[in-house]
Amino acid sequence: MFGTPRDISDENWSIRFIILCWLIWKRRCSFVLASEVRRMEDILTSGDRVADRLAAKGRWLSNEPTVFLTAPDDVINLVEDDKVLSNLVRLPLGLSKVPGLYVQPPNERIDKENAIKLELPPIDLSKLDGPGHHEVAEQIVRAAETVGFFQVVNHGVPLHLIQSLKDTAHKFFGLPLERKAVYLAPVSPSPLVTYGTSYLPEKEKALGWKDYILMQYTGDDEALRYWPDEINGVLLEYMKSSIVMVKRLLRVLLENIGVKSDDSMIDVLIGKKMVAMIFYPICPNPDVTIGIGRHSDIGMLTVLLQDEVGGLYVKVEKDMDYEKKAEWIEIPPIPDALVINVADMLQVLSNGKYRSAEHAVRNTNINSRVSVPIFTMPIETAKIAPLPQVVEKDGIANYREFPFGDYMNNVFTNALDGKKSLDFAKIS
Ligand SMILES: O=C(O)CCC(=O)C(=O)O
């Protein structure tokens, strides 16, 4: 029944042989993979011409989905296990299931069943300079005081520019990875430009399902020199005409709280600008991921260009009209409209009268989406505190005074967490 001693020894040899082959194969794989990763780390920290070197590694760094999908599971697991590396390498486009690092805890997801669409018509800014001024100003103020988000049309930003920007964004993110990887944070030729997926992967609970390129504006010359050539022209033009609109909106909002603003005041309040281009790839499991997690913007006003795909949601706060109806309000795309939202500094200056809205982006499994936000914010040395005219009226200041640079540093060293950023300034 048990066979002869000779038989047993034969069986032992074949089992040993199989185990030996398996061990050699496994050792070889882990050696290859570990060295790949070490070389990646070298590259990413070396400050070398990263593009050439990443290009040479196209086998699994390519953003060709099929190439990535043919990579051994171990490669995917390695990238999956390392948040920072995964953030730097690439979203695994084309996967049929999102890797674990992108799966959000249930309380961070956006449940579509728990959301309503904001059906308010967009505000027509062409009427702001005519007899309709009062009515339009009231619409802007009401929106800033309630949801903190509104959409505008006839805003003065040329429509051909908006279309061209969307096309440019799709083209840019469609470039081979090595062309974009030169802007990865550790190796970017300028601190003004950063490419990545999640903003602070080492601190976030799960990664965002997106890619972004973030550019600081410090002047035209620097923008033309350091922002990617493929996008700098159209982005600069878009930013400049958007800023004209931001100034008009800001004047209306300040006037409503009794503050007469002049050019020098506005220049301080929106003296710092950042522009991002964001790409949300099609997601196989949009119910468990998030494009950008819950956050409020840190500056004054944000101008957002979103394409026709949708996915932008505002969190309903306790005292909102929508409180009993839903947890989220969807801001649907409107052709030719731009989205405007109130950010933290405007909430502070208005002593809480204007609402910096907590918002997030949900992915879809139907289309990839692009958006282009322009963040306007005070210069870093500006001392921010509720404006005296509002404090006098309210009888109390709800926020302390601080330099904007300190606020910014605090936000940029912490993971996104809804409106927690404002705790830095609150007097409780
Ligand atoms: O992509 C969007 O619609 C929103 C982007 C956003 O919230 C941000 O970049 O802060």
Automatic annotation (TrEMBL):
Domain Fe2OG dioxygenase stretches: 265-378
Keywords associated with the record: Iron, Metal-binding, Oxidoreductase
Record flagged with keyword Iron: yes
Superkingdom field: Eukaryota
One Pfam family named in its UniProt record: DIOX_N
Keyword Iron belongs to the record: yes
Similarity annotation: Belongs to the iron/ascorbate-dependent oxidoreductase family.
Name assigned to this protein: Fe2OG dioxygenase domain-containing protein
